[in-house]
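Project outcomes to date are best conveyed with an example. Our students and postdoctoral researchers have been running inverse folding experiments weekly, and each run begins with a structure described purely in tokens. The record below, which covers 323 residues, was selected by the lab manager from last quarter's runs and is presented without edits.
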């Protein structure tokens, strides 16, 4: 074999290995095709709290809806603790060239939450523009995967905190695992919360009525920088109870993906990702009171220096269910 051929073979193996590692990272971050706002969460030195920054949102009213109209904002200070189950799924299947398809899906996870609004917003959250702090205690999380359920048992009692605005925009996520929590359980719970963060709803700072339509634009960082647009339609409004229909699209900001650890680049040959669903929101409760959102798509990536092609099919869902 010529040295150039050997070099190409080595490079091809390196690219394939890099692709696998990179897509594992994307898959795990993604739950939403990608709900990881910060690939390197900060570990607070004085505790085991993990702080994950959340990218800002831009909300634009497309149609204000019918009269009567009013500004919708959360007021949860006087609410009793809300008990709700968050269930998430994530499927990731990929294939390099004509190789065997590989499955990097995550098991379904149901996380029982007890949520309440704190009396004050911590200073670090206030600096992000947050005006509310939602404190959550994690109950006995479960999964159809018995191994994950066993690993999750030590995570009961873990806590989390969402920094939010009165409009519902989430500006930061904090997770404090129980001391005995296992790494696999920590990662699974973090993915579940990330999915919920990037499937949340901001209400516009304007008066709206039934039939109103607005868009929420936000970047999702999951290895690739994605521009996510969530189109929200106010289907029904009864006092403080709102039902909203949601449509989601994601598009890559650049046609080139810079792989982690300087592993090279890939061309994004095609990228589709869309989703839809409905959420029931009570403006006096910290978290959605019901509903689900399902999303998915297909992507194809090519190596600019070889004939390597990677195809990926992803899907995910979140469901809120009262207990």
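After processing, the design step wrote out the following sequence:
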């Amino acid at each position: 074999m010529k040295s150039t051929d050997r070099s190409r073979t080595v490079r091809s193996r390196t690219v394939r290995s890099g692709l696998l590692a990179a897509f594992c990272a994307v898959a795990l971050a993604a739950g939403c095709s990608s709900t990881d706002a910060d690939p390197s969460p900060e570990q607070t030195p004085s505790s085991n709290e993990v702080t994950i920054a959340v990218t800002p949102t831009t909300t634009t009213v497309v149609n204000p809806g019918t009269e009567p109209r009013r500004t919708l904002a959360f007021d949860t200070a006087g609410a009793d603790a809300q008990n709700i189950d968050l269930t998430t799924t994530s499927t990731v299947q990929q294939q390099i060239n004509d190789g065997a398809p590989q499955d990097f899906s995550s098991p379904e996870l149901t996380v029982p939450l007890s949520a309440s609004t704190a009396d004050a917003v911590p200073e670090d959250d206030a600096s992000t523009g947050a005006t509310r702090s939602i404190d959550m205690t994690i109950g006995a999380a479960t999964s159809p995967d018995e191994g994950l359920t066993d690993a999750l048992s030590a995570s009961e009692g873990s806590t989390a905190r969402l920094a939010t605005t009165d409009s519902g925009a989430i500006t930061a996520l904090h997770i404090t695992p129980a001391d005995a929590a296992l790494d696999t359980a920590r990662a699974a719970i973090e993915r579940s919360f990330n999915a919920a963060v990037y499937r949340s709803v901001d209400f516009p700072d304007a008066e709206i009525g039934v039939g109103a339509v607005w868009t929420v634009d936000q970047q999702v960082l999951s290895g690739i920088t994605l521009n996510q647009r969530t189109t929200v339609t106010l289907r029904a409004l009864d006092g403080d109870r709102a039902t909203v229909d949601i449509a989601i699209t994601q598009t890559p900001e650049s046609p080139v993906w810079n792989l982690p650890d300087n592993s090279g680049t890939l061309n994004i040959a095609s990228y589709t990702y869309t989703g839809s669903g409905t959420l029931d929101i009570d403006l006096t409760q910290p978290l959605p009171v019901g509903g689900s959102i399902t999303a998915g798509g297909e992507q194809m990536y090519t190596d600019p220096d070889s004939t390597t092609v990677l195809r990926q099919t992803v899907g995910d869902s979140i469901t809120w269910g009262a207990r």
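The first helix runs from residue 3 to 30. Confidence is low (pLDDT under 50) at residues 1-17, 23-46. The training component of this project remains on track.
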